[in-house]
């Protein structure tokens, strides 16, 4: 459950992060590749990775040692900047007790919008993943709306914190599920949100 949750949250976080990077205006949100004090406006592909994606449920917690996402920002400025999450993956996933898990991402691509330091990832069906961990967990975890908080740095990160997930489809589903993850921008170098 945790792994599934983490994967779903990571997917949401990734989608939100990409959307956030895609739009902005001079008085609104702006994406830059920062070299010193010069902001070079940026739009296009943004890639990120996470080593701490976690699905938390009342049945089991799932941790994924690696998650990768690709987002596309449709513009460098906007209020909000629009975009979408085009790729998301979760690997090396297991319960906290060591049961291996398979995570299958569902319903890509996801829409995204970035306004200020908030990346919102949305999907009318649900952004997320199916998580299967032996006989411990087998359920689909989705959210129609996930928000991630952006923090500039080296690298800039997008954080999903305890995003609530639906969890009703599957053979072994929990009664509660949340997803948390921190995605670090790996490309382009020096990406900053203003």
Describe this structure in words.
This protein is mainly beta. The chain has one domain (2-193). It contains one helix and 15 strands, in the order αβββββββββββββββ. The strands form two sheets. Strands 3, 4, 5, 7, 8, 9, 10, 11, 12, 13 and 14 form an eleven-stranded antiparallel beta sheet that branches. Strands 1, 2, 6 and 15 form a four-stranded antiparallel beta sheet that branches. The radius of gyration is 16 Å and the shape is elongated. The model is unreliable at 1-26 (pLDDT under 50).
Shape annotation: elongated
Characterize the main sheet.
Answer: 11 strands, antiparallel
The number of helical segments is 1
First-residue to last-residue Cα separation? 36 Å
Helix and strand content put the structural class at: mainly beta
The residue ranges in which pLDDT falls below 50 over 5 or more consecutive positions are 1-26
Mean pLDDT: 88
Strand content: over 45%
What brief labels describe this structure?
mainly beta, four-stranded antiparallel sheet, eleven-stranded antiparallel sheet
Task: Give a summary of the structure in a few sentences.
The protein is mostly beta strands.
Blueprint of the fold:
Blueprint: H1 2-21, E1 29-35, E2 38-41, E3 44-50, E4 53-57, E5 61-73, E6 77-78, E7 81-95, E8 100-106, E9 110-115, E10 118-133, E11 137-151, E12 157-164, E13 166-172, E14 177-187, E15 191-193
Antiparallel strand pairs: 1-2, 1-6, 1-15, 3-5, 3-14, 4-5, 4-14, 5-7, 7-8, 7-9, 8-10, 9-10, 10-11, 11-12, 11-13, 12-14
């Amino acid at each position: 459950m945790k792994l599934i949750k983490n994967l779903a949250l990571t997917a949401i976080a990734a989608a939100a992060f990409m959307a956030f990077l895609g739009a902005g205006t001079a008085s609104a949100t702006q994406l830059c590749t920062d070299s010193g004090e010069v902001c070079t406006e940026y739009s296009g592909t943004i890639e990120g990775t996470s080593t701490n994606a976690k699905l938390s449920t009342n049945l089991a917690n799932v941790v994924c040692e690696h998650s990768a996402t690709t987002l596309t920002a449709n513009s460098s400025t906007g209020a909000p900047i629009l975009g979408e999450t085009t790729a998301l993956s979760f690997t090396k996933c297991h319960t906290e007790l060591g049961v291996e898990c398979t995570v299958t991402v569902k319903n890509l691509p996801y829409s995204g919008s970035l306004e200020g330091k908030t990346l919102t990832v949305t999907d009318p069906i649900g952004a997320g993943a199916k998580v299967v961990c032996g006989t411990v967990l087998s359920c689909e975890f989705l959210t129609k709306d996930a928000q991630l908080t952006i923090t500039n740095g080296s690298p800039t990160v997008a954080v999903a914190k305890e995003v609530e997930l639906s969890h009703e489809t599957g053979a072994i589903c929990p009664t509660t599920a949340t997803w948390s993850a921190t995605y670090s921008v790996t490309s382009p170098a020096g990406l900053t949100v203003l």
